[in-house]
Design goal:
alpha/beta; Rossmann fold; 4-stranded mixed β-sheet; disordered N terminus; binds S-adenosylmethionine
Length: 175
């Protein structure tokens, strides 16, 4: 397979894991937005911004470094190694900046970031049924080759719930 070819093929359409700018399907965003009423998209391009207030990489913004103070944030972070940094940023935003953050991420229950920044953070997790069809250049691409989850950080209960992850770790320590 040549370097320029997408890595994953799903049916007739394709999903390239090499790009980090797959956009949230409008219907999925609309459903969550109806529930939460988002005020900030911290990681996007100008063309894929989901809120009036946004931090876009192609405008020279760095959403990780900006304030999320008091915002209701919709975060579909760039996937790959940096997802851990974004999830840690989301956790800090809820704990220290009073932000509610709703993150659309791959279900990665075997990773360190899932255990540290989802389970041990006391975040709420909703598993998405089926595979998300992310958008590219305004059009739907192939179905993602991974399951997705919506992870919710609420300032009022962040870090408080003893998660299954921490219970398992505590049991391991006790054994
Ligand atoms: C998975 S896409 C999501 C786009 C959009 N928020 C959405 O939900 O449709 C993540 C986007 O974050 C951008 N990005 C990466 N690092 C960033 C940074 N430090 N600040 C702002 N945006 C960033 C990427 O270029 C990419 O366009």
């Amino acid at each position: 397979m040549s370097k320029s070819k997408p890595q994953y093929v799903a049916g007739a359409a394709m999903f390239s894991s090499k790009r980090d700018d797959w956009a949230t399907p409008p219907a999925l965003f609309a459903e969550l937005n109806a529930e939460f009423g988002f005020t900030l998209d911290p990681c996007c391009k100008v063309a894929t911004a989901k809120c009036d207030k946004f931090f876009a990489i192609d405008r020279g913004d760095d959403g990780l470094a900006e304030s999320w103070q008091g915002e209701t944030v919709f975060m579909n972070p760039p996937y790959g190694k940096s997802v851990s940094t974004w999830m840690e940023r989301a956790y800090r935003a809820a704990r220290e900046e009073g932000a509610t953050v709703v993150a659309l991420v791959p279900c990665s229950a075997d990773t360190g970031w899932w255990h540290e920044h989802v389970l041990d953070a006391g975040a709420e997790v909703r598993f998405v049924k089926g595979r998300v069809r992310f958008f590219q250049d305004g059009r739907p691409g192939g179905h993602a080759p991974f399951a997705s989850a919506v992870v919710i950080y609420r300032p009022e209960n962040i870090g408080q719930a003893p998660s299954l992850g921490s219970i398992v770790q505590a049991r391991k320590r006790a054994a």
